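Question (not urgent): is this output format expected?
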Amino acid sequence: MKDFFRKVKMEYVVQSLVIIAIGVVLIAWAPAVIPLMARILAALLFVVGVLFVLSYFFKKERGFVDSGSFAFGIIVAAVGVWIFLNPVAFTDFIPKIFGAFILLSGIRNLGQTFSLVRYKYGLWWLSLIFALATVGLGAGLIFKASQANELIVRLIGGFLAYDGASNLWTASRLGKYGKAFEAAKQEAEAIDVEAEIVDTNDSAER
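Got this back:
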């Protein structure tokens, strides 16, 4: 049991340090990490696409579904190549999509605010604040996509660093109280053995 706690603690420490290191890298070097992450995704897509294409040629009998898989593989591989060659354009495209949806939602909320004003609702200004904030967020994601990407990556890095630090704390508690648990268990077993010996001696004397 003692070796188990030691092993668990070591695994926690190593994993936590790795997680913290990754978090720090994401926080400190977000602009450089984003294209790297896009290229890794591009490589994975390219490999998947090539596998689909190769599976088509390795089959002796090919049907309509296989032809679809072949076309799908070519498209996926081509998308992977495009992302690999244009990682910044790809990563900026994602926040713009979300920004467009959020912007449209904010515009709709503005329309709802005007309805609240017409209905003479007293707290219509709260709806106006929420709507303007939503519109601002959507516009920010559209026109400041690169900064939004960096912020998201840094937030992920912060969460990872926090997770690693909390794991280290858990590992330290596990090691401390694991040892205390083992010591208490051994002490209890020793007392039981002593009590059994005393009981045996008493029985023999009788």
